[in-house]
Amino acid sequence: MDIGTLDVAPVISPTNIVQRVKKMFPPSRTLSARENGDAAVSNPASIGYDRAAVAANISATQWTTQVTIGGQVLNLLVDTGSSDLVRGFVAFDDVSVGASPPVLMAIEVATEVSETIKGFDEWDGILGLGFRDLNTVVPNKVDSFMLRLLESYPPTLPVFTVDLNPQRPHSKPTVEIGKIDREKANGDLQHAPVNNSSGWWAVDDISFEVDGQALPVRQTMIFDTGGSSTISVQPEVAAAYYNNTGAVNFYNDGTYYFPCSTKLPDLKMYIGNGTAIYRASLLSAPAGNDGQCVGVINGNLTGMGNVGGPFFEAHFVVFDYATPAIQYAPFL
User: Fold this and answer.
1) What global pTM score does this model have?
2) pLDDT tens track for 125-150
3) For a disulfide at 178, which of 3, 124, 203, 224, Cβ 3.0-4.6 Å?
4) pLDDT above 50 for 283
């Protein structure tokens, strides 16, 4: 059986609000295509920007769904990059998401909320969908909502799928539990084994290609729906990507700046037995009002990378607990 379909909604907010909840940026919705041009690269500092200001200029999207806790309906962020339900002291209550049946589980109830978050009322907390090892409850970790649901009401398929592309006609973003709607996928679903030893939906041995050149780099990357608008990669991957664009890493922090007229290449990423292509139209964002842009591919990686918001905007994704594994395909 399939357990149900959850409608999710995009909520736009400045990234400085999101940084109070998570240390990574959520998916960006201000990305656009760029053309070739002759404009020079400006040092952000020389035109009155600093790194914090540039980050704050990028709008962000979180994906929320309605969650019922003890009879109260809340809007929570859909987050495969954590395993907690809300934050704070631990209580137990019945929890259901959308039309799913209720499960009794641990809830972390916030006792303090920052002033910044108090002013942003479109969401009430976080619905973590990662694995148990990522949970922060002490002294004993607890399962996430999805694991509790699959344990209490075992579906035919122990999966959930995410469709987070709001741009396709006659469709709306959804999370579906216990079923795979293959009609949303353009072609066969590709498969990648997940390394969940740290609680993440993480895939090892991902490699890259830029302008037909395979890069001699392999890295582990996480699939985080509540994570970053940036695609976090090793410094050498970012350097190779921007090599022929004239982009400049002014602060040596992996963030590259360039005129918005710059023509960027696509990025090809080999994930499991398949290939994901990041189109150049998704790989830049405005850095201000002076025609300068910032790259979505960031090379300041000091651990696992992140496939970034553009991956979920372009792909139908299956989170499979059975193996575990990630399956993906471009949207139809």
Assistant:
1) 0.82
2) 888 999 999 998 888 899 999 899 88
3) 3
4) yes
Contacts of 231 (CB under 8 A, 6+ apart): 267, 278, 283, 296, 297, 298, 305, 306, 307, 308, 310, 311
Cα-flanking dihedrals φ and ψ of residue 190, to 5°? Answer: -90, 155
Within 8 A by CB and 6+ apart from 91, the residues are 106, 107, 109
With CA atoms as reference, report the closest residue to 192 among 331, 327, 330, 329.
327
Question: 3-state class of 17 per DSSP?
Answer: helix
Which amino acid type is present at position 241? Y
DSSP letters for 142-181: ---HHHHHHHHS--SS-EEEEE--TTSTT---EEEES---
CA atoms within 13 A on the CB side of 24: 28
Whole-angstrom distance, CA of residue 59 vs CA of residue 61: 7
Pair of tokens at residue 217: 């780099």
- The percentage of the chain sitting over the pLDDT mark of 70, rounded to a whole number, equals 77
